[in-house]
Amino acid sequence: MAQYFEVHPDNPQPRLLKQAVALLERGGILAVPTDSSYALACHLDDKAAADRLRQIRGVDDRHHLTLLCRDLSELANYARVDNKQYRMLKSATPGAYTFILEATREVPRRVSHPQRKTIGLRVPEHRALQELLALHGAPLLATTLIPPGQADPLNDAHDIRDRFEHQIAGVLDAGACPSQPTTVIDMHEGEPVVVRQGRGDLARLGL
Predict the structure, then answer these.
(1) For 177, which DSSP code?
(2) Partners of 102 in the beta sheet?
(3) What's the rounded Cα separation, in Å, for the pair 76 and 89?
(4) Domain 3-205 class?
(5) Any bridge partners for residue 193, and if so which?
(6) Can you tell me the distance from the alpha carbon of 185 to that of 203, in angstroms, rounded to the nearest whole number?
(7) Mean pLDDT, 10 residues at a time, over the chain (207 residues)?
């Protein structure tokens, strides 16, 4: 049964976040709040956890998974960008944007897109998730928490626990999230291409 961590959205309790990090380090999958909706997240280097994450979400290896990062200091380890692309990323982070970038060799092959060798990357603007990432000390592998066969993400932590309590290790409840997906920008071929317009304002990117 999933553990339930009710944390303050602006001042999350470190004790509870440390317990949640321990679940990740044991291969568990967490439901975590973001600045767009709740997401499923797991340890980047755990193949079994990544496979379960895809199974719960009902997607195959062609579905882009996303790296949740604390800030852009982690970018160079996982993605290749030029100076122009970096300036755009810097202007939009943290925020409700997902950037599709060329993956480096540091990204496990099973995680990147099998044909394009790309990875989604984002820096969420959510205090509880930022604190969780800081305690974990590395990016998390994530996907929007949309139940199989549905179009909209779940944003109520109690509902998430009821639906997935036997499939995930824990739920980090920091209150309801905005019920709107991220804006997705594909940058892996150089010039930015808007794949999906969501919560992130395109004007902030100059698009």
Answers:
(1) P
(2) 80, 118
(3) 12
(4) alpha beta
(5) 186
(6) 13
(7) 92 96 96 94 90 89 85 86 92 94 76 69 95 95 89 88 93 88 89 91 89
